[in-house]
Amino acid sequence: MKHISILVPQGAILGSIEGPRLVFAEVNALLQRMGRPALFQIQLVGLHHATRVCGGRYTVAADVLLSEVSRTDLVIVPAVDGDLAQALEMNQEFLPWIVQQYQRGAEVASLCMGAFLLAATGLLAGRQCTTHWAAANEFRRMFPEVELREDRLITDEHGIYSSGGAFSYLNLVLYLIEKYAGREMAVFCAKVFQIDIERVSQSAFVVFNGQKAHEDEPIKKAQTYIEENYREKITVDQLASMLALGRRNLERRFKKATSNSVVEYIQRVKIEVAKNSLESTRENVNEVMYNVGYTDPKAFRLTFKRVTGLSPKQYRSKYHRETSVAG
């Protein structure tokens, strides 16, 4: 039987504690209906017998205290909410225990903003990780040694897993169930809980707001210029000349400040405007393309799909705001 320890951090999001517990428990229930033994021993593990979560709205009762668990097979690190620095401080006692369990052979999985707690252990240094796209800039600032893949829905590296934002943690739970119990069981759980098991990216959900939480004023000026002139053909040399910077110096500073190259930033600004048009207007794809400064339909489609994971037509079909109700 595989022992699963779902942590109960202070300030946790309730759904990312109960959600995994519920899905793993469903596997046990199905196996028992089939006359087979349960596969998972699931425990909520806390620093205290009762922990306030969701800003104090709910109290979660732990099955066992952290000090009572000497060995486990899988550690689930739920999402935390609110002030992240404060959340890390309140949950410091979990960190050495997580490291100890990993060193003893346990696997570790962070859900959404739980990546901040996992990164604070040092286990992610030099490794890939994902988290909620809205927290990507803050994560990079706090953990520059981690390779953040904000486009990914799931990462899996040397027994350490992470999931993207919000309810995408369910995709990671299904991924783990497939690993431990097989594809058939994972598909069954996907049907019971109505989870799209084939999702691999959170790119389509990302709202690009730029990265301006830095002190490099010339780079902020460049970002503002790009955002206000997205219809134009902007070049790196043009920006370098405008800011009186060498091209290489501009590119180095831009990447450091925004985590994007200049060209990537220009593309992401244009695609974000295009996404908004596809969601809210009746302009056809070519009109949207021209309005954001593209003239080559193939280049626009390729860039759009690379950024969002969907073609422009697929994106519109998925997210356009319907103005009428059939019937």
Automatic annotation (TrEMBL):
InterPro entries in the cross-refs: Class_I_gatase-like, DJ-1/PfpI, Homeodomain-like_sf, HTH_AraC, INH-QAR
Taxonomic lineage: Bacteria, Pseudomonadati, Bacteroidota, Cytophagia, Cytophagales
Residue ranges constituting the HTH araC/xylS-type domain according to the UniProt record: 220-318
Transmembrane portions of the chain: none
Protein name per its UniProtKB record: AraC family transcriptional regulator
Keyword Transcription regulation: yes
Keywords in alphabetical order: Transcription, Transcription regulation
Entry-linked CDD domains: GATase1_AraC_2
Recorded superkingdom: Bacteria
A Pfam family of this chain: HTH_18
